Amino acid sequence: MPELPEVEIQCRTLRRWLVGRRVLLEDLDFGCGNREMRVTGVRRRGKYLLIEGKETWVLHLRMTGKVVPSRPEGRKRARFHTLQSGQAYDFEDARRLGTLAVVGVFDDSHLGPEPWPEKRNASWWRDRLQGLRSPIKPALMRQDRVAGLGNIAASEILFRAGVDPRIRVPDVRRWKHIADAAHAFLGELIAEEAGEEILYVTQGGSNPFRVYQRAQCPTCATAITRLVQSGRATFFCPTCQPISPVSGR
């Protein structure tokens, strides 16, 4: 499922394919109608992809969406034709949960600041989640506080930081560990997965994660615990991520 690293990778491929070219958007499923414009930029904001020109095409990949060079297979919901070269790229979306909208200017007022590529320090992370009383794992997924982190990223960051996902935000003390873990995880995953196409774990791609959908901890071999928080699966190691009211781990 696409989170900040996957959306960043997709952003880079779209930038390479579309920027500086006149592009026809063929809408196959969204009701936006066909559009044509010269693409002047592609950028990521949180989990959104913004294809910009005289207007902005806002793409959200959701669970299974991705843009790939046009091919016969795949459930296509939109197509981007580069008119001069004749090349086409399809928005494939097996579960049809992705969205496409056309706006004049993208309103990002509902999104918090970005956690990457700038390295954020411990104070930044503590201040962004200040006032929340929920467990730390769902708090990290609050897009109005920090844009781009999703379910997998939150689990992986907390594992690297040695923080139990069930501890409540006011009791967390290891903010520097979270800051270091977030920057390292996001940067490493983007570098590792960079390529022409996003390969999701749920669609047969390799699993690059340390605890997500793993049977045992890569550090201590303890069985990974799976629980549900705010309707989403959380994976963690009860040995490497002990809950402690004294240390606030």
Largest sheet, if any?
5 strands, antiparallel
Biggest sheet strand line-up: 2-1-7-8-6
CATH fold topology of the largest domain: Helicase, Ruva Protein, domain 3
Kindly give the count of domains: 2
Strand content: 15-25%
Q: Give the N-terminus to C-terminus distance in angstroms.
A: 28 Å
Q: Which structural traits does this protein have?
A:
23% helix, disordered C terminus, Helicase, Ruva Protein, domain 3, 5 helices, 249 residues, 2 domains
Would you give an account of this structure?
Helix 1 runs parallel beside helix 5 (about 175-195), helix 2 crosses helix 5 and helix 4 packs across helix 5. The strands form three sheets. A five-stranded antiparallel beta sheet has the order 2-1-7-8-6, covered by helices on one side. Strands 3-4-5-9 form a four-stranded antiparallel beta sheet, with helices on one face. It is an alpha+beta fold and about 250 residues long. It has five helices and eleven strands, in the order αβββββββββααααββ. It folds into two domains: about 5-105, MutM-like, N-terminal (N-terminal domain of MutM-like DNA repair proteins, Alpha-Beta Barrel), CATH 3.20.190; about 120-235, Orthogonal Bundle (Helicase, Ruva Protein, domain 3). A hairpin with a 7-residue loop joins strand 1 (about 20-25) and strand 2 (about 35-40).
Entry summary:
The protein is of the alpha+beta class and 249 residues long.
Topology:
Elements lengths: L3 H15 L3 E6 L7 E4 L2 E5 L2 E5 L3 E5 L4 E5 L6 E7 L5 E6 L5 E5 L18 H7 L7 H5 L10 H11 L13 H19 L31 E5 L2 E5 L13
Antiparallel strand pairs: 1-2, 1-7, 3-4, 4-5, 5-9, 6-8, 7-8, 10-11
Helix pairs in contact: 1-5, 2-5, 4-5
